[in-house]
Amino acid sequence: MPPLDEPPPLPSPKRRAGCATWLLRLFAIGVVLVVAASATMLFLMRSGRIPDSRILDRYELHERIVDRLRALELEEGEEIVLFYSGAPFDVAFDGNLLTDRRVVSWFENDDEERVVDSVELGSIDRIEIRFTSHVFEDSTLDVYENVGGDSIYSATLLLSNEEDGDHLFVEELVKRARRADAPLATVEVSGEVSEEELSRIP
């Protein structure tokens, strides 16, 4: 028992978190959530459960995606060269495909109907590509084919610009179309493209 002439001990001051402390805590929580979400998305893409955000060649595609493409669009004996889907969950809703025979594009319209456009490599006579480098925007490829001597618009493909996949897709398409003796006379390029990138198109 303390002597009577000593004052009672003062209560300890209560420490309060300032605004900056709470902001740091919220920032840390936000970083953890973003990292966790990114890791989850990466796992789902790499395991073939959802489409990748990049254009992939046959050897990068998970067998789940390959099997789905075989069931959806591939003809007997047809081989995948490059593929990209802008759909968030299922490649059935959106697809942009280059095979050893043709280019194929499909999407679901406003009436929830699946629209499919296909052009044989040997009949392509014109392509128009609009490149973009914006993160949330795909490059656009319009394909025309020769029908009875006329150049007819036939398909539009969306191409991810991630890791320059859109440039790779166009280069491979032009190369394979020429190899298939296509009457490809015009390759019209616009948008964000450098002279060095232009020079790579065959």
Number of domains: 2
Would you count the extended β strands for me?
9
- Count of helical segments? 4
Largest sheet: number of strands, sense, barrel closure: 5 strands, antiparallel
Shape: elongated
Order of helices and strands: HEHEEEEEEEHEH
Mean pLDDT: 83
Strand order of the largest sheet: 1-2-3-4-5
Structural class assignment? alpha+beta
List low-confidence stretches: none
| CATH C-level label of the largest domain | Mainly Beta
Strand content: 25-35%
Distance between the termini: 96 Å
Instruction: State the CATH topology of the largest domain.
Output: PH-domain like
Q: In which range does the helix fraction lie?
A: 25-40%
- Gyration radius, in Å: 27 Å
Shape-level CATH architecture of the largest domain: Roll
Task: Summarize it.
The chain contains four helices and nine strands, in the order H-E-H-E-E-E-E-E-E-E-H-E-H. The chain is α+β, with helices and mostly antiparallel strands and 202 residues long.
Annotation keywords:
202 residues, four-stranded mixed sheet, five-stranded antiparallel sheet, 4 helices, PH-domain like
List the helices and strands and how they pair.
Layout: H1 19-46, E1 56-57, H2 63-72, E2 80-84, E3 94-99, E4 102-108, E5 114-120, E6 124-131, E7 139-147, E8 150-159, H3 165-179, E9 186-191, H4 195-199
Parallel strand pairs: 6-9
Antiparallel strand pairs: 1-2, 2-3, 3-4, 4-5, 6-7, 7-8
